[in-house]
Give the backbone structure.
Amino acid sequence: MAYGLEIKNDSGNFLIQDKAPSYMFIGKATYDSLVSHTSVPSSWKGRSYYYDHGNRGSQNCSGSLSGSGSFEIRTYNGYYRSCTENSYNCGGLTTYYTIPDDGGTAIFYVYSMHRPIVFSAGSAPASITDTGVTNGEGETRWDIALLVDYPAGDPSGVAAMEVYCFAYNTGTPTGQGLAVFDSTGSNTFDSNKTILNIKDIMTITALDVDGQTLGTIGYTYTGGTEVSSMSKPMWASVDWARWYRRQESRSDRQSMYYDPIFGSPRCTYASSAWVYHWFITIGVVSGFYWNGTSITANFNVATKLDWGVTESSGNAASDTLYGQKTIPLPIIVPIIDGADYD
Amino acid sequence: MAFGIQLMDSSGNTTLDSTTVAYSHIDVISVAKGASGSQAYPNLVGWTIYVSQIQDFATYSDYNDIVDWSGVDVGITYPSGVPTIAYDSNQSVGNGGLVRLFIMGN
């Protein structure tokens, strides 16, 4: 090195240097609130669909939450009815989907001069927002939204989640110890703060998530068995895949047309036209639960729901799943031992 | 400890123990949507580099939005032993577009 300070360990890894600021432990995030993913958009008369027979147009259908997390899709006000071939009996069309209360978005927060990175036991995907709020020390409040899952109907454990936060050092070091500054005078190390110590790296080398199935995850650890020797392995929040599930439920054959004489929609039977209710769930793939022996994959909860009514010439219900990686392979995930910071 | 360096805060808590550091944090590069570039680390000849993409999740209402999120293409090469990272966000980056490349090595 031409100038400055570098201290390495016996393996040649940096411990302290003046070139790159060290990430320091700034604390565990504080729990604020939880919004469960049981809400459904457009709860009433908010969705449009097309009917193909007669004049093309759109009408509203309805959907609402009912019972314990069941979501009902129902056609609106008789405009869209099922028809039987012989009786022309126009009945209602109703499909129920169940939305379990087993996941949501949890808000935590931490104060820091700089944007933090976070580690958690489940590698919960995170979205970190600068709130613009500062405390008396001039530190910004960073809201940390985590996608979390929990036992159905029991979110009580969410508030107790441990979210380890790291950021470039904050403020001016005080008191005793060792401090290092770069050429601009910014503090890069302070012995009064615990340094981010990445003890292992998980490398996802195979991820069968692209396409219409979600398959297995292939991964290796560059650190060998290091994870198994940790007391509390914590994975960095990395958003690496999405899934999209579309369920269709056939309701009945039907047809609608607009009768210019009566000036209203009419119902008739069509053998080739089926009406479907559809319901989609969009989720974020997370994972890396450590059960003390091995890593188990986890597919995190839905983040958005959508629904509607459509027509099709087919007559089979379907349940399709699509996956999409959001980061090219290999996917690298740093791991720390939370016990180092407790 | 038998060897190495150990630092403690004023309460006697260990803040740095050289025997436990397996990977060094080297750098963080923020990559905005549409940005590309490269970064070489000539002072780290012989090191193995790892790049983790730290990005915020976003929520979507449509599958087309999902596939629009593609992270950043990252390539790591070692010309003459110098770790070099090339990154390209030519594909869309989600959530308004900011990915942090968290770079580690040993």
